[in-house]
Amino acid sequence: MKIAFHGAARTVTGSKHLITLKNNTQILLDCGLFQGMGAVTEKLNDYFGFDPGKITYLVLSHAHIDHCGLLPKLVADGFSGKIFCTAATMDLARILMMDSAKIQMQDAEFANRHLRQGEEPEAPLYTDDDVVQAVSQMKIVDYEEDFEIEPHIRLKFTDAGHILGSAAVHLTITEEGRTTKVTFSGDVGRYGDLLLKSPQQFAQADYILMESTYGDSLHKDLDPIEDMLLEIIQNTCKIKKGKVIIPAFSVGRTQELLYALNGLELKGKLPDVLYYVDSPLSSKATEILKSHPEVYNNGVKETLKIDHDVFAFKGLRFIESLEESKALNNDPRPCVIISASGMAEAGRVKHHIRNNISNAKNTILMVGYCEPSSLGGRLIAGQKVVDIFREDYEVKAEVRSIKSMSAHGDYEDLLQFLSCQDPAKVKRLFLVHGEYDVQQNFATRLKDHGFKHVAIPEYHQEFEL
């Protein structure tokens, strides 16, 4: 049995991990888009590093686009097998992949309207028809179900606590009388998340693929999230009369923000300003979350006893049309705008940042992980001038960050996730989904906790198990 790492290798996005058995059965774990990688992003997304037509099965850990976003291209390029995932992941992946296809088709159409003589027309990575086909190949597997993919290959999902439907993947593979247990963490959530249950424990594994996004960080803020939001909104909207622009992923982060703001209203503390969610995708994702109340933690279930809609409050409006979105730029009133994408690399939020970044009255609030080269990453790093739509803008707005809102666990959470394992029985632990320097630091920490065989795979590197 071999495993090769064709994405999220010494970087955070583009999740693709390929297990090949001795009989040439191929199991692909995730098939995600690379994001925020600058000029090389397009090239990385064009090349799988393997033949899609030879993949037998795909197991999808969760619906974030850096884990599912290349599924339609995989299908278009020849993959015809089953895609195993949880029910909520299928619901979310459908809308996220369809949104991705729409953006790519629009971008290609725009580029082709401005072709120079001799230039080749651009084509999208995939179309909405490819998304429909990919969804038709999905097979739902429930959490903790002992599912037989085929004789000698069994699959179990446990809740990873990262986003709605997210799962750690556990494969039990028997070859030539020998059984091997492989666990892929997917993305691990926080213990004590605002909305979701904590990650579940899991059975002993022989090999572990472990995410490491925040492998050298602790998400320790001095104040609770509600208090930090209150302070930032009061200071920006009430004192400076400005706008708070919050780049937030449509799935997970936006709903956490709405829940925290709703909490302020329940306590009578919510500032009386306008609140906009400017992302049609966020609206759909919020409705899907409402339809899966089984994922809520006990705190949310208690709140539901006194408030039937924990994602709604006074002054909140969901913006649908592009015209309404553009109108916000000309509205001088103080307000809070929550908009995708979370790394500020694309989508409507990029326009809101461009229109507000050079005014000291305003605040740009980052609430999640950003690739260092993304617009969000450059703002967090403190750059004084940033390029937006090929123009330079002076950063006069205040840039703030709430690190504790990350859906990714910090190193304490990651170590707690692994605490159910006997390190002496783990033959090798592979670190994926992290920047290389972060992974090196986390590898040292893991070795101190007894995991002696830690590897940090390179892009396309293959290992014998």
UniProtKB/TrEMBL annotation:
Example of a GO MF term? RNA endonuclease activity
Family matches, as InterPro entries: Beta_Casp, MBL, Metallo-B-lactamas, RibonucZ/Hydroxyglut_hydro, RMMBL
UniProt KW keywords: Hydrolase
Entries under SUPFAM superfamilies matching the protein: Metallo-hydrolase/oxidoreductase
Q: Looking at the keywords, is Hydrolase present?
A: yes
What top-level branch of life does the organism fall under? Answer: Bacteria
Q: Mind telling me what this protein is named?
A: Metallo-beta-lactamase family protein
Q: Which residues form the Metallo-beta-lactamase domain?
A: 13-240
Q: Which Gene3D superfamilies match?
A: 3.40.50.10890, Ribonuclease Z/Hydroxyacylglutathione hydrolase-like
Phylogenetic classification of the source organism: Bacteria, Pseudomonadati, Bacteroidota, Sphingobacteriia, Sphingobacteriales
Q: Which residues form the Beta-Casp domain?
A: 254-379
